[in-house]
Structures are given as C-alpha cells and as structure tokens.
Amino acid sequence: MNIENDKIGSVIHKRLSELCKELKISERKFSTSIGKSPSYISSLNKDITSEVLHNISVKYKHVNIMWIITGEGEMLNNQSTNINENISFADLINEYRLDIKDLNNQIKELEKQKAELEQKLIQAKKHVLEEEDVTCANASGFDLAK
User: Which of 60, 128, 132, 143 has the fewest beta carbons under 10 Å from its own?
Assistant: First the structure.
C-alpha cells in the first residue's frame, strides 16, 4: 500500500463528504449520480481518477473541481446558483428506484426474520404441549393447541 495515496484518498474522501453535505444529498446518491457504486465515496481510500472528476464536472457544473483536488478556493463556483436546479426528473426517478430497491431488500429480510420467529413460536408451543403441566400457559390465555 502506498501511504501517500492513502493520505490523498482520505483527504479527497473528506472533501467529497463535505461536498455531499453542502449539496444536501447522501454520499450514496452522489456516488451513483457520477456513475459509481453506491459505496464509492465511503470506501474511497486512494486518489480520485480523472474520470470521476470529469463525471462530477458534467453532473455538477457549479462544483469547483480544483477545490476537490487541492482544497483551495471555494467549494462551489457560483454561490448564487441554486444547488438543486441541476437535478433532473430522471435523476430523481433513479434515486427513488434505488431507495425502493433498498426498502424491498429490507422488507424481504424482515419477512425472513418473521418466518423464523413464527417457526420458533410453533416449536415452543409444541414443547409446552408436551409438558405435563400446562396450567400456567392455559391460564395466560394462549391458545397452545394451534
């Protein structure tokens, strides 16, 4: 590993994180908007490529690329420009699709956990029915016969 590249990557990561906060978008959304994986910024540990800088300059025309590289100057070229004006309808749809995909994955995981818990409950009910003294369970109102 090149320690110098690691330091540069860390500095670039910090600047891109600051930029995302200024643009009021997540690092994940910013990463995908420049054609990279959702984890691109969070996993950045080396120098930024010219391709990425080009993609940023095309997508975010008001971002000062030299600030990303050197840290010098203003983060944004034109402070009076509305930051959100460059977000197109198609970009919003793509962002929402990513969010929906993430939520669907979370739903599937929760459904899997629910099914596992239901199986454990069935097993617990069977175990209680096998015990001789189920008076307490019956008194609690649980229908253990299911």
Answer: 132
